[in-house]
Amino acid sequence: MYLNNEIKNNIFTALCVLFGLVGVGFLLIIICSLIYKGILGLSPAIFTLPTAFGGLANAILGQIILVFMASVFGLFIGSFAGIYISEYSKNKAVKNGLICVIEILLSTPSIIVGVFIYAIFVSTFGSYSGIAGSLALGFIMLCVVAKTFFEALGSVDPKLKEASYALGASKRQVIMSVMMANAKPALITGVILGVARIAGESAPLLFTNANNDFFSFDIFSSLPSLSVSIYEFSLSSDEALRNAAWSGALLLLIMVLGANIISKLVFLKERK
C-alpha cells in the first residue's frame, strides 16, 4: 500500500515538473522571440519620431503621462480604501463584502473596466480623453493598492498597536507612524506592482483614450499611448511598422519587468 502511494506521488510530481517545464519553455520562447525581433526593429526613429511617421516617441511620452495620472488616482483612492477596510470597518459582514468586491474587480478583464468608464465618462462628455484613460487605468490600480494595504496592515503585530494606544497615541498616529512604518516593504512593493500592472494595458485605453499619432499634452483630448500604438502597428501591412510594434513591445517588457525587479529589491532592502 505504502509503495503504491509512493509510486503515485512520484508520478504526480513528475507530471507537475513536466508541465511546469513546458509552461516555462513556452514563456522563454515568447520572451526570446520578443527580444530578438524587438532589437532588430530598434532604430533612432523609434525614439525621435511620432507614430504618424513610424516612430514611438510620442507614444512613450503619452504612456508615461497616462500611467502617472492613473498612479496618482489609484494610489490616493486605493490607499484610503485599504486603510478603511483594515482599520475602520467594524462590521465583519461589510468588511468581508468589500474584500470580496475587490477580489472580484481584480479578476475582472480590464476591457470591462474600459467599457464601464466609456459608459459613464466618454459617452457623457462625448469624446475620448487622457483623463478617461487614466481613470480606467487608475481604477485597475486602486484595486491592487487597496488589497495590498489591507493585507499589509492586517499582518502587523497587534501588540504594536496595543502598545501605541497604551502610550496615548491616536488612531491616526498608530496607523501612520506604527502600522504603515512596519508594513512599509509590502506597501512599496504593492504600489510598484500596481504600476507595472497598468503599464502594459491597452484594452481599457481603446474605449477611453483611443490614440493620438502626434505629440500632445492635452489631457482633455486623446493622448498618444504606447500599448495602443503597438496594437495598431501590429495590424499594419507595412513591415517597418510591424517591426516598430515589436520594438515597442520590447520597451513595454523592459518597463514591466524593471518595475517587478525594483519592487523585489526594495522589499528585500527594507526587510534588512
From TrEMBL:
The chain crosses the membrane at residues 12-36, 56-85, 97-121, 127-153, 174-199, 244-267. It comes from the Bacteria. Keywords: Cell membrane, Membrane, Phosphate transport, Transmembrane, Transmembrane helix, Transport. SUPFAM superfamilies: MetI-like. It is a multi-pass membrane protein. Its main location: membrane. Residues 60-263 form the ABC transmembrane type-1 domain. It is found in: Cell membrane. Belongs to the binding-protein-dependent transport system permease family. CysTW subfamily. PANTHER family: PHOSPHATE TRANSPORT SYSTEM PERMEASE PROTEIN PSTA. This is Phosphate transport system permease protein PstA. It comes from Campylobacter magnus. The gene is pstA.
